[in-house]
Specification:
CATH superfamily of the largest domain in chain A: Type I PLP-dependent aspartate aminotransferase-like (Major domain)
CATH class of the largest domain in chain A: Alpha Beta
Number of strands of chain A: 15
Oligomer: homodimer
Largest interface: A-B, 73 and 73 residues
Structural class of chain A: alpha/beta
CATH topology of the largest domain in chain A: Aspartate Aminotransferase, domain 2
Strand order of the largest sheet of chain A: 2-8-7-6-5-3-4
CATH architecture of the largest domain in chain A: 3-Layer(aba) Sandwich
Number of domains of chain A: 2
Order of helices and strands of chain A: HEHHEHEHEEHEEHEEEHHHEEHEEEH
Distance between the termini of chain A: 58 Å
Largest sheet of chain A: 7 strands, mixed
Radius of gyration of chain A: 21 Å
Shape of chain A: globular
Chain lengths: ~400, ~400
Amino acid sequence: MFLNPHFAELQENYLFATIANKVSAYTAAHPENKIIRMGIGDVTQPLVPAVIEAMHKAVDEMAKKETFHGYAPDHGYPFLREAIRGYYAQHGVEVSASEIFVGDGAKSDVGNIVDLFSDENTVLIPDPVYPVYVDTNVMAGRKISYLDATEENGFLAMPDENVHADIVYLCSPNNPTGAVYSREQLQTWVDYALANNAVILYDTAYEAFISDADLPHSIFEIPGAKKCAIEFCSFSKTAGFTGVRCGYTVICDELVSGGVQVNRLWARRQSTKFNGVNYITQRGAEAVFTEEGMKQVRGVIALYRKNAEVMVDTFREIGVWFTGGEHSPYIWHKVPDGMTSWEFFDYLLQKAEVVGTPGSGFGKNGEGYFRLTAFGTLENTAAAMERIKRLLRAR
Amino acid sequence: MFLNPHFAELQENYLFATIANKVSAYTAAHPENKIIRMGIGDVTQPLVPAVIEAMHKAVDEMAKKETFHGYAPDHGYPFLREAIRGYYAQHGVEVSASEIFVGDGAKSDVGNIVDLFSDENTVLIPDPVYPVYVDTNVMAGRKISYLDATEENGFLAMPDENVHADIVYLCSPNNPTGAVYSREQLQTWVDYALANNAVILYDTAYEAFISDADLPHSIFEIPGAKKCAIEFCSFSKTAGFTGVRCGYTVICDELVSGGVQVNRLWARRQSTKFNGVNYITQRGAEAVFTEEGMKQVRGVIALYRKNAEVMVDTFREIGVWFTGGEHSPYIWHKVPDGMTSWEFFDYLLQKAEVVGTPGSGFGKNGEGYFRLTAFGTLENTAAAMERIKRLLRAR
């Protein structure tokens, strides 16, 4: 057998492993102290009652021959595709249920979408970035160009009309920076994609955190996007499904290349290499979109948002540059002058006993920045902010 | 964007769609008649009580902050990997938990494993075959050689020492034929793979149907296999998880190519393009391996096996050549002289109101054969066999 040589080109990502090791070492040395963890982007609140109820009911259905469900439809049960269609309609986006593909999470779909494209594409990826976009293309042996997201552009990279790309990855609200594209900025991207016959792979897993009605939840709110974009979304951050695994990918019939409807390829890819999402999970996901379910998940998001608000207020108060936090569970802030991201990590761990994520772990433009998440409790978040305030003011 | 050109080389598989259309047309014309369906390989019995109980408990854990589970480990929870390790040990196979990767089903893993190999490999696939092996390699643009499985070799193709291959797909107990490799036959395959530096992708999703203690459940029962095989297994047929989605892939540390441990590549592939299996599902899967769970799932398999026995007895009695049925939920039988598989499909539908699957849908060597499944009820299976007996005896 011959192995895929491109795996050897992947950079080992020791980011979270290194963080875990450093935290373990510190904890071992100071067992009595209370560390506040704001590093990992995982939810902490339980599933909401509407989801739990739907899941128990679905488990009971699986216990009886008359109501048992075997293989699910490859692309999702009609009841869930229809519920997602209704959710889009609430944002003024008209997509049909057949353009919505239910999967086991945005990470899988974002990763597997590369199967649809030939290796001759030029891929454009903003830096800093969610590492999956980079690694999946490295594995496929693709040429990657990077686009600088920096403090100057508010970590919202815009296209360079003189540089051609075939595939563009955008994530808004952004992981790791929390920055959100405006309607106008996304229109510029859509225009660029249409002019370049490019496809935008649009990751909107954090859309539920958007609180400003003027900011787009979906790229399909932008005229022309149906012809040039694929959208990935997830229940992970909307409804706390990180350990449940459900997401959806939307590819409109208008997205055509060389006379081929791209969603037919995705349908075939999924029918061949995927076997549908767990019935119990799909019933739980459906419950998110009921009136009660939506009210409940919005209640949970409000808790995280309150944390983010405390964080935003803190960084405003101490005058440290940051982005995110307003429409995102992430705050991305500048580290004190002269420190690297990792130096700040150590400094924060030792002086404030707060754990975050060094920005340099997300790409070269992340150097000098730091990510904190709002997924903890209000009590811990407020305590961490007090510690950070004291620490940074004292400098 | 440039699309993957190899999708255009895929054959559209209309097999199950055509069956559905023909059955609908017949039902519309004869609404009062009772058709017995033995076409689709999906289970019909509900999940067993031990699994249901574990799932309800896990759902309750997800409802409370103290016991909520976010992101699962990418390669499976230790409790499940350890339970699978114990199951292997029962068959005398020593693998470590770290060599076991939990995924969302054998189809996904068998499909996604192609990511690990370069496109220059020569792939050897028996015909007839589970279409996923073929289609995933066509998508990747690989050269495929076919190996004839026929009545002469009992639909158990053996290697040709003069033909080199890099990747070999084997499925035992086989889908669609139900044939099972003996220990000696698998040893021949392992020896071939070792001599050719090839990897055997071994699909053993139906291993729980093996009733003869001399037949191997796992390729790792064969000396040398750890150095040349990857094994895929699933809870789908073992525990009725077709709608739940859980499986596992075993890659031993001994499988090395060019100095690289292949399981490190799979670990990286899964960490990059997959985000772990649902916590509730993993708790359900764990329950399969408890004493009670194992007793219960064996009870369900005994029901399906009883159906298969009735089928085996019928085909023996009427003297029609067949394979499968003894260690498999599938019977693969010869159609009457002069008929194609599809002609027999129509004949059986119209004269006996029984639905099966034309063998030609699984490859050219399937022409003239027909697949029937044992996943129905005993009552329906017995009634179908009576109808087939009358029909074929009358010829």
